[in-house]
Amino acid sequence: MSNTEARIDKWLWAARxxxxxxxxxxxxxxxQVSMGGTQLKPSRMVKVGDVVDVRxxxxxxxxxxxxxxxxxxxxxxxPEVLENVTAPEQYELLEMSRISGFIDRARGTGRPTKKERxxxxxxxxxxxxxxxxxxxxxxx
Length: 140
Fold this sequence. Notes:
This protein is α+β, with helices and mostly antiparallel strands. Helices cover 33% and strands 19% of the residues. The protein has a 5-stranded antiparallel beta sheet. A two-stranded antiparallel sheet has the order 1-4. α1 (8-14) packs across α2 (21-29). It starts with a strand and ends in a 14-residue tail after the last helix. The mean pLDDT is 85.
């Protein structure tokens, strides 16, 4: 089942770190995959015992390769393929980003938050309605 070496893009896909091999290769090309501080190309061969760092903002995951596979395996077999050696500080960073809320969304863009929605509703309640010189007869 396991070889001595595997392409990094295939291994990242097979180990279910990325959903598709295309995404894994793109991450390598963007410099999000490294080993020992060196960025890896998608065709780089990795072997058992290597520690691969994968940057998925806001944190960097670290995985030790236990099996150099190139064919996707079931989720239950992942503990046999890799060992997660990510530093606890990285998970603390992830938790902090979850607590702080919308990091990537600039204020005033996109869908309003619950707080912004309440402010909008309150503003609209206070605003007087002006219809100009029109008269409405609502008793028809």
